[in-house]
Design brief:
With 371 residues, the protein is of the alpha/beta class. The chain contains twelve helices and 13 strands. It binds pyridoxal-5'-phosphate.
Length: 371
């Protein structure tokens, strides 16, 4: 039978299963359980933030974070153009306007030199999203925003455990968000986290994830919130996964390096290298960009799929999303880098259990097609 390589297989360990089973047996299965609080505590320690608030997923984390910092209609929020749509939606759902910035072709993060020009007297916040495994230069971003009352929301969903200048990604933002979806470095199936040092943001996040129940009269609610709670079962899995994160990071970096060694020889392919100018690569995914104008990622994906190699296309840029047409403030800017990446970029299988010989075979197939 032909071998099939999925783009991702979640890394669920025997220890995860044991811990989750234990929790299920003691009947703490909804959100009000000891593992939820312990997961938040341990995650805070790991990221080095005072408070962590677990939520249903990374999109929910962004929505709650944006409301917690009081984004309102009329506000503008700077976001990357090359990113997950959750960044834009968290702004739009509060009636505010996302202001996108194109990405850099080398590291795929937002072009920070463009930030200054995007700031207006309506700018309330910026979402800094670390894309596909590289950190943004957080110190330089902070320098650009110095003395401006602009809140930094750091979306570290894709880089859990990556350090920038010896500090954890997710520890730089005034408020930071994470995702524990099945393809992340740690997973709870679905799940997310918000971290902050600010006690007011923390209090708002706790209220907002739990329907803003009244303090005096429980069912007389204090604001329009959500039920975005995580379950105790998920938290148990998260705790077990967090114990294993260093092993996962080491393996993922190894996988990325093995691909890089072979595919970077191909002059028609660009990859984020293992070490960039400003950040190391934690390889959330192993992305490649085709440098041949007549060969799109779609074409390559189709060919690879036929021989059992599943891939995923890169993000579709915000400026091209038809559903966002009436919501973005594009400032008449161009977004040609994100458009290029979305047309010519895809990512390859990079799951934890992938073997060296599989990587060599997959990379060889890519090289045979893109030549
Ligand atoms: C950068 C980034 N932020 C947020 C999310 C949303 O996370 P979730 O899928 O848990 O809602 C993702 C999803 O992959 C992401 O890549």
């Amino acid at each position: 039978m032909k071998k099939f390589y999925p783009v991702n297989i979640p890394n669920v360990t025997i220890k995860d299963i044991k811990y989750v089973s234990r929790v299920m047996k003691n009947s703490w299965i909804s959100s009000d359980g000891p593992e939820v609080r312990l997961f938040e505590k341990k995650f805070s320690k790991f990221i080095n933030k005072k408070y962590s608030i677990s939520v249903a997923n990374g999109t929910a984390a962004l929505e709650i974070a944006m409301k917690a910092i009081n984004i309102k209609p009329g506000d503008e929020v700077i976001i990357p153009n090359f990113t997950i749509i959750s960044n834009a939606l968290s702004v739009i759902k509060l009636g505010a306007t996302p202001v996108p910035i194109d990405c850099d072709l080398k590291d795929w993060n937002m072009i920070i030199q463009k930030i200054k020009n995007k700031i207006s007297n309506k700018t309330k916040a910026i979402i800094v999203t670390h894309i596909y495994g590289y950190s943004n230069p957080m110190d330089e971003i902070k320098k650009i925003l110095k003395n401006k009352k602009i809140i930094i929301v750091e979306d570290a969903a894709e880089v859990i455990g990556l350090k920038y200048k010896n500090k954890m990604c997710g520890s730089f933002g005034d408020i930071s968000t994470f995702s524990f979806y099945a393809n992340k470095h740690i997973t709870t199936g679905e799940g997310g986290m918000i971290s902050t040092d600010n006690p007011i943001f923390k209090r708002r996040c706790v209220e907002l994830r739990n329907l803003c129940f009244g303090k005096k009269d429980r069912f007389n609610h204090t604001d329009i919130g959500w039920n975005y709670r995580i379950t105790n079962i998920q938290a148990a899995m998260g705790l077990s996964q967090l114990n294993n994160i260093n092993k996962v990071i080491k393996k993922k970096i190894n996988i990325g390096k093995m691909y890089y060694k072979i595919l970077s020889q191909n002059k028609f392919i660009y990859m984020q290298p293992p070490k960039g100018e400003k950040s190391n690569n934690i390889y959330w995914v192993v992305g490649i960009v085709i440098l041949k104008k007549n060969y799109t990622a779609k074409k390559l994906a189709k060919k690879l799929n036929k021989i059992g190699i599943q891939t995923r296309p890169f993000f579709y840029p915000m400026n091209k999303q038809s559903i966002l047409k009436n919501y973005l403030n594009k400032n008449k800017d161009n977004f040609k880098n994100s458009e290029y990446l979305s047309k010519y970029g895809l990512y390859l299988p990079s799951y934890f259990s992938l073997k060296k010989k599989d990587i060599e075979w997959i990379a060889k197939q890519v090289n045979n097609i893109i030549c």
